[in-house]
From TrEMBL:
Keyword match ATP-binding: yes
SMART domains in UniProt: Gln-synt_C
Entry protein name: Glutamine synthetase family protein
Task performed by this protein: Catalyzes the ATP-dependent biosynthesis of glutamine from glutamate and ammonia.
UniProt keyword Nucleotide-binding, yes or no: yes
InterPro entries: Gln_synt_N (IPR008147), Gln_synt_N_sf (IPR036651), Gln_synth/guanido_kin_cat_dom (IPR014746), Gln_synth_cat_dom (IPR008146)
Domain GS catalytic: 120-456
Native source species: Mesorhizobium argentiipisi
C-alpha cells in the first residue's frame, strides 16, 4: 500500500477530531506538490471523489508564470479546469503538520476524465503499464542529496543567497561527529517520514559542508516517485519549522559538490518475488534481460538527459572530480561512471543511474529510464564491456550533454521517446526546456556584472 492511512481510517480520524485538514495535491512539471487544503469533513463527504484546478498548473514555469506556446493550455483557450482525482491509496498522515493528511491526485481531462497525457504522474503510469503488460515490476529507489543551512529562507533571501551559513562548517562525509550537530532536522526527517508511510533506511553526511543524503526504501516505480516528492516537500517544511533552510539545487555553489539524485532500478516478476536481473552464471551476474535493459539506458542516455537535468543550473553539476558523472558509460562499482552496477552477485543486483540531480522530477526521470530500458530489451541490445578506471580522464567516451540547450535539442529529435511517451508529450516538455533557456538567455547574472561592469 502506497500510503499508511485508509479512507475508513481517515473518516474515523475526522469524526474524532484527530484530522481537520486534507491536502489534495497534484505533482507539477517541476516535481512540486500543488493543490488545495480541504476542511477534512468536506473532503470525506464530497471532495474525495474529485476536485478541480486550473490547467495552467501544467503549462507554467517555476515562477508560476503562464508560458505562451503550449498547445495544451493557453490564454486563447481560456486556461480552463482539469480534474484532480484523489488516488486514495496514497492517503497518509503528515506528522509534521498539525492534524493533517495528504493525498496525491491524478490529473484528468475535464471532459473525458482520461489522464492528461503530459501530467508527470500519467507519463510514469503509462510506462509502468508497459512493464505490467510484460509481467514485470520495476523497483526504483532515489537517493536525495541536499544542503542544510543554519539560515531561514527569509534570511537567505535577504543575503541574496550569498555567504550562507551551512549547518556544518566543513565537509563531514560519513562523519558521525559533525552530523550529530545536524540531528535536530535530520532525526525529525527520518522519523516523521517513516510515520508518514515513507520508510527511511538511513541518512548520512555528504561531500559538502552541511550536505546531507537521505535514502528511502525501494518501491514500485510509481510509489517511489510519490515518496520522493512528499519527502522533498516535507524536508523543506520540517527544516523551516526548525528555523533552517534546505536547498535541492543541483549546484548551489561553484566551489562545492552538487546535489544528486541517483536512481537505482531493476525488474522483478509480477508477484515481486523473483529478481529478473540476477543470474549467477551470467557475466557480472547480470541476466541477459538486465544487460539489454542497461544497454538501452546507455544508448538513449543523451536523448533523455533533460528528464534528469531540467534546468540551466543542472548542467553546472557535471564537473570532473566532483563525484558527478560527465561521461555516458557503465562500470562495476565505479563512482566516476554515469551508470554503476550495484549489488553484483546478489538478488539485489541493479543499475544505478548517477546522471540525475536533486532538482529532477522523479516521475519523468523514472519514466525515461523505463522507456529506454524497454527499448534495449525490444532491440535486443548487447551491453558493452564495463569501463575500468577514471572516466573523467577518458577522452573517447560519449559525453553527457553539456548544456540545457544541447539536451533540449537532443530530446526534440528522440524517436524512441516520442513513440514511448507520445509526440505531443515530448513537444510539451521540449517547449518547457526551450522556455527555460529563453528566460536565462535574456537575464543578466551576478557573474556578468562582476566580470564586466568595470572591465568591459
Amino acid at each position: 500500500m502506497a500510503g499508511n492511512f485508509s479512507f475508513d481510517q481517515l473518516k474515523k480520524a475526522v469524526s474524532n477530531g484527530e484530522i481537520d485538514t486534507v491536502l489534495a495535491c497534484i505533482v507539477d512539471m517541476q516535481g512540486r506538490l500543488a493543490g488545495k487544503r480541504f476542511l477534512a469533513q468536506y473532503f470525506v463527504d464530497s471532495a474525495h471523489g474529485e476536485t478541480h484546478g486550473c490547467n495552467y498548473l501544467l503549462a507554467c514555469d517555476i515562477d508560476m508564470e503562464p508560458v505562451p506556446g503550449y498547445k495544451a493550455a493557453s490564454w486563447s483557450k481560456g486556461y480552463g479546469d482539469f480534474v484532480m482525482k484523489p488516488d486514495l491509496s496514497t492517503l497518509r498522515r503528515i506528522p509534521w503538520l498539525e492534524k493533517t493528511a495528504l493525498v496525491i491526485c491524478d490529473v484528468l481531462d475535464h471532459h473525458t476524465h482520461e489522464d492528461v497525457a503530459h501530467s508527470p504522474r500519467a507519463i510514469l503510469k503509462k510506462q509502468v503499464k508497459r512493464l505490467q503488460e510484460r509481467g514485470y515490476i520495476g523497483y526504483f529507489a532515489s537517493e536525495l542529496e541536499f544542503y542544510l543551512f543554519s539560515e531561514t529562507y527569509e534570511s537567505a533571501r535577504k543575503k541574496h543567497w550569498q555567504g550562507l551559513d551551512s549547518a556544518s562548517p566543513y565537509i563531514g562525509d560519513y562523519q558521525i561527529g559533525i552530523t550529530s550537530k545536524e540531528e535536530g532536522v535530520m532525526r525529525r526527517l527520518r522519523n516523521e517520514m517513516e510515520a508518514a508511510g515513507i520508510p527511511i533506511e538511513n541518512s548520512k553526511g555528504e561531500w559538502g559542508p552541511g550536505q546531507e543524503e537521505i535514502n528511502v526504501r525501494y518501491a514500485e516505480a510509481l510509489e517511489m516517485a510519490d515518496r520522493h516528492v512528499i519527502l522533498k516537500n516535507g524536508a523543506k517544511e520540517i527544516a523551516d519549522s526548525e528555523g533552517k533552510a534546505i536547498s535541492f539545487m543541483a549546484k548551489y555553489n561553484y566551489g562545492l559538490a552538487g546535489n544528486s539524485s541517483h536512481i537505482h532500478n531493476s525488474l522483478w516478476s509480477a508477484d515481486g518475488k523473483t529478481p529478473l536481473f540476477f543470474d549467477k552464471k551470467a557475466d557480472w551476474t547480470l541476466s541477459s534481460l538486465g544487460q539489454q535493459w542497461a544497454a538501452g539506458q546507455l544508448k538513449y542516455a543523451k536523448e533523455f538527459t533533460w528528464f534528469l537535468a531540467p534546468y540551466i543550473n543542472s548542467y553546472k553539476r557535471f564537473q570532473a572530480g566532483t563525484f558527478a558523472p560527465t561521461k555516458i558509460m557503465w562500470s562495476e562499482d565505479n563512482r566516476t561512471a554515469g551508470f554503476r552496477l550495484c549489488g553484483e552477485g546478489t538478488k539485489g543486483i541493479r543499475m544505478e543511474c548517477r546522471i540525475g540531480g536533486a532538482d529532477l522530477n522523479p516521475y519523468l526521470a523514472f519514466a525515461a529510464l523505463i522507456a529506454s530500458g524497454l527499448a534495449g530489451i525490444d532491440e535486443r541490445l548487447e551491453l558493452q564491456k564495463p569501463f575500468v578506471g577514471d572516466a573523467y580522464q577518458a577522452s573517447r567516451l560519449p559525453e553527457i550533454p553539456k548544456t540545457l540547450r544541447d539536451a533540449a535539442e537532443t530530446l526534440a529529435k528522440s524517436k524512441m521517446l516520442k513513440q514511448a511517451f507520445g509526440e505531443e508529450v515530448i513537444e510539451h516538455y521540449v517547449h518547457t526546456a526551450r522556455w527555460e533557456q529563453f528566460e536565462y538567455d535574456r537575464r543578466i547574472t551576478d557573474w556578468e556584472l562582476h566580470r564586466g561592469f568595470e572591465r568591459y
